[in-house]
Amino acid sequence: MNRRSRLSRWVLAAYCVYLILPLYWLLTLALRSNADIAGVFQLVPSNPTLANFAEILSNPVWYEGFVNSLSYVLLNTLISVFAALPAAYVFSRYRFLGDRQLFFWLLTNRMAPPAVFLLPFFQLYSSIGLFDTPLAVALAHCLFTVPLSVWILEGFMSGVPTEIDDMARIDGHSFWFFFTRIFLPINRGAIGVTVFFCFMFSWVELLLARTLTGSEAKPIVVVMTRTVSASGMDWGVLAAAGIFTVLPGILVVWFVRQHLVKGFALGRV
Amino acid sequence: MAQDKAQDNRAWLGVLPVMLIVAFSGVIPLMTVVNYSVQDILDFNTRFFVGFEWYRETLTDPRFIDAFLRQLGFSAAVLAIEIPLGIVIARGMPTQGLRASLLLVLLATPLLIPWNVVGTIWQIYARSDIGLLGVTLNEMGFAFNYTAEPLHAWLTLLAMDIWHWTSLVALLVFAGLTSVPAACYQAAELDGASKWQVFRHVELPRLKGVLVIAVLLRLMDSFMIYTEPFVLTGGGPGNTTTFLSQYLATMAVGQFDLGPAAAFSVIYFLFILLFSWLFYTSVMRSEEDS
Question: Which residues does chain B have within 8 Å of residue A38's beta carbon, measured at their own beta carbons?
């Protein structure tokens, strides 16, 4: 049976238009010079230029920022997924002392309003000598990516019947074999979704990344803010940089998309 | 979490890595802020213990209360629009083929744009002289100007947040929907259930887990929104779009009142905690009842 009613399809179509228009605007901004943007309203750029993209590709600051961002985002995603896998497994399979409280407590760490918390973060990572390294940002971002990963993974793992665990035991497989060869492949869709969410939240975060880096590990989101303030509002370059920053995430979605549909077949969530 | 699970306290071993990471990057900064909040800090070597003075001051500060009420209104509006809209969008999504893949990418795109760029896009997009949205609205006869009219500033912020974050709800719900077995739909069809009944009794119970995550994420993130309004409206016109984070930032960075700002942060944190906990426990309780 088709769950797609006519209404929901119309809403989806309308929402797509609503999504695309600002994205189209971002694209036209990236193709225009600053004076042009501030001067006149144009639905289609009258004399498009690639100068903004050239500016980004020719200045090594952008390239370094891009690599810096990628390195802490990948590090963060790795740490989050590997730490969250065993935790999500035990949450989905066992009751233990304080499990519900712990489950909720994990999420409360997302709730710290950044403005004042930035200072202790800076002090903490300076005192252990990690300031201005990708690892510092990756660890700080774990604050919100780790709890989220546990929540998402637990949701999916709870939907996998426990009979699978029992059967593996009866077949004489070790727990390690069962977990890595049977259980994780079943949950690869859930892992794909988790990777996407870790990647996304770590990639777009600005305040912690700015506080914990100096000149060495400066991420691309910070390069953006500084370039803007240097020569007034450099909208064209900012828009072009915005387009570049979306690309890695789109690659991640493209690889995860099959799992997003298929992998959930067993999931209760 | 299901009820029929084995009791085993060794499970703590599995949770240990997560506990250590989160305790390190979460609990230490939190305790540091609590420590600031009970002191008057003139500089880093001159400080006095002041007890709950800053807490009392914050809770009776009319500007705090105003910002808090604005924040409540904003978060309520965001949840009331984005959750139902996200569900409807997810139900309209095709489940396979190239079109489904392209739609997934399109939905994910706003989530991947850095927040300061999101603010900048909308700042220009909504401008009545050079922006597509602003110019179009004015051509249609609305005197739209979000830099001067508080109502317009609010609507622009809401429109931006819907654009930015509805996809998160839609993607989570879409993922949840694919877990509904086809057999359930067939059974409902045989029973002659209406579309609404299918949604209410077949889909909604299975979406509960993802909806809890979606509501909590949107609740917390909308309550802490900072970068986008900072870029788009700067809290104006006047103070009409100054939310809690913005007010806190002017206090902590602009005036360097570390003690009061820390007390403000702790109160702010506790409110988010309270709302999330109320929501979480009420959902969990209804699960036990049913």
Answer: 130
Q: Taking CB atoms and an 8 Å limit, are A107 and B216 in contact across chains?
A: yes
- Closest-CA distance of chain B to residue A50, Å: 19
A132 occurs within a structural domain? yes
Q: Which part of chain B has CATH 1.10.3720.10?
A: 62-289
Element (H, E) at B57: helix B53-59
Domains held by chain A: number: 1
- Owning domain of residue A242: 55-265
Q: What CATH number should be reported for the domain holding residue A117? A: 1.10.3720.10
ipTM over the 0.90 cut-off: no
The partner residue sitting opposite B276, judged by closest CB among A111, A159, A225, is: A111
pTM: 0.88
| Cα separation of the two ends of chain B | 14
Closest by Cα among B168, B279, B275, B152 to B224: B275
Q: pLDDT tens digit string along B168-224?
A: 999 888 887 876 777 778 888 888 888 888 888 888 887 887 888 889 999 999 998
Please report residues of A whose CB lies closer than 8 A to that of B175: 193, 260, 264, 267, 269
- The answer to whether A96 contacts B8, with C-beta atoms less than 8 Å apart, is yes
CA nearest to B166 within chain A: A15
pLDDT digits (tens, 9 = 90+) for A227-267: 654 556 788 888 898 999 899 989 888 888 877 665 444 44
- A24 lies in some domain: no
Q: Between B92, B100, B131, which is nearest A261 by CB?
A: B100
Specify if A10 maps to a domain: no
Tokens of B246: 């913005």
- Is the residue at A90 inside a domain? yes
Query: What whole-number distance in Å separates Cα of residue A198 and Cα of residue A202?
Result: 6
Average pLDDT over residues A170-193: 86
- Exposure string of A63-78, with b = 16+ CB inside 10 Å and e = fewer, is ebbbebbbbbbbbbbe
Mean pLDDT of A1-22: 85
Cis peptide before B181 (omega within 30 of 0): no
Which class would CATH give B62-289? mainly alpha
- Stretch 112-141 of chain A: residues touching chain B, C-beta under 8 Å: 112-117, 119-121, 123-124, 139-140
